[in-house]
Structure formats: C-alpha cells, structure tokens
Amino acid sequence: MQYTHLGRSGLQVSRLCLGTMNFGMVTDEPTSCKIMDAAIEAGINFIDTADVYGGPQRPDMEKGYGISEEIIGRWLAQGGRRERIVLATKVYQPMGPARMIAASPRITFDRLVRIACAGCRQTTSTSTRCTTSIGARPGRRSGKRWNSWLSKVR
Amino acid sequence: MELLVKQGKVIYAGSSNFAGWDIATAQCAAASRHFMGLVSEQSLYHLGARTIELEVIPACRHYGLGLIPWSPIGGGLLGGALRKAAEGRRATELVRRQVEQRRPQLEAYEAFCQQIRAEPAVVALAWLLHNSAVTAPIVGPRTAEQLAGNLRALDLALSDEMLRRLDEIWPGPGGEAPKAYAW
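YS: structure for the whole thing
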C-alpha cells in the first residue's frame, strides 16, 4: 500500500479510501465487515462514511438516516483497529433529533454539526482520528449562515 | 468545528462538495481565528467529470487541502459499462442513460483499456492516482472481491502517452480558471 499525508494534516492515509455508503443498505453487516477486514489487511487505513450512509439519500431529503456509522463502530470495537484507522464522517442532512432543531430557522448550522458529531461518537464509539467533513454547502439551509460554523462555535 | 477539534471530538475538519470559493472563504475565516481550517475536500471527480479542475483543485492546492474524489469510477460508468451492458448485466438507470449519452467515448475508452490489458475500473482509479492533487479516491466496493479489483489500480503505471490518450478520450475543462476559457 502507498501512503500520503491528508492535506497539511499529520495523518498518513492510504492512497485508497474505503467508502461505506453501501454499508447497511446494499451490503449487509457481515459482508461490510468482510470488506473492512480485507481493506485493513491490504493496508487501507482510511475509511469514509456519513451519518446518512446506509440509508436512502437525496440532496433534497428532509430527513436522512443510515446505519453505516454503526456498522463501522461495531467493527472498530472488536479491538486492535481504532488506533490504525483514520475515520472520516460527514454531516449535512437532518438526522433524527437534529432535524427538529434544523427545522428552526434560528438554529445555526454549527449547532447541527455539534449534535451530529456527538451522535457520531455514540454510533461509532470511537475517539480516535475522526475527521468530520461539512457536506455540501450549509448555506442551502440558512442563507449565509454557513460561515458560522467557523465563527460562532465556541 | 474549531470547538470540536479543541474538545478532541474530531482531529481535523474537512469539507465535501464545496465550490472553490467556499474553500477560500472557509480558510480565510479560519486564518482570522488562528484555526487550521479545512484539511481535505471531497468532490465528485473522475475521467468523465473533470469540472473541479477549473476552481476546486487550484483552491485545494493553494490552501493545502487533500483531495478525496468520490465516485472515482463514475458510479460504474468507467467500470466497463458498455461491455457489461452487452453481456446483459444490470445497471442503474443513471448509468444506462449515461452509457447512451457517451457511447462513442466509452467505446474508445474500453478499446483503449483492452489495448493496454487493464480493466476499465482499474484504469479510472489509476488515472486519479497519477494526479498529485489527489490524496485518495473513495472506492465503494460491494464485495471483498470488488475491493481486490480496486487495489490493482495501485500497481498500474500509466505512461505519459497513455495519459495523453485518456485526455483525448475524456477531455477536461482545458485547465484551470481563467485560462481554460479566457485565452
């Protein structure tokens, strides 16, 4: 396997990233685990997911759901893996309780991100090397508010 | 995001489907707060979808973001879609439509892959891996066997001549903005 830095970060990632959009939807959990086993065996240390993965997705969906993060979380919990994996997850579509909050025009995107992040840590039960991405442009939901995820989170 | 990093809940922040100017705005806001900002951008990028070469890739390079292409095989379009359709294999509606729209390109592409004795999906991934702006394409195998196929892309070296041929078959936007369209 070849490795490279993820941008200017200190993380060394494999040059193939394992996408898990299908986990829990197209691919069942045992097969998903087999794929992750094969990936780590081949030297892949970079896994990408999102809170909505493993469920249906459309940019205009009002509410998303998925179990890809949960499948990855259970796999990571089997031991000896957490320290080796760089896990990237994403938030954007409203999920569960975050949906109600996002439905309020007064709630900023950074609140959604914080809730989603707390949820991510629960579902994946991991505290190591989590890179969270902001999916799409937050501005879709709240005008120019997308800027606030950097400026207002304290 | 800054708080999440401070609290140790995440180690770095990244973006997905950002425009070039989104990345620039985010990095400027981060810099004004002495925060590292984004370390990566995930974008749609494959031989048949090269629009990000105009604005997003230059922004990633300037701000030092790693680029993580999603849909590197075009949802199956670059995975031998023509041959598979001829064999009667099922495909998504989107891929079927794209196959019809891009039939001449796909014919040339699959013939080229056959000529260099490589699987089309492997060539599509290897093309991305030859781009120094690309950190790691996101592959989405549905089985462990498909993952094994994806891994072969790491061993496929494409010569300058092969890369030129791929550029002919799947032309990009012509470079970066503004020279791609202005002169």
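YS: worth flagging: DSSP finds ten helices and four strands in chain B.
IM: good catch. Also Chain B touches chain A through 53 residues (CB under 8 Å).
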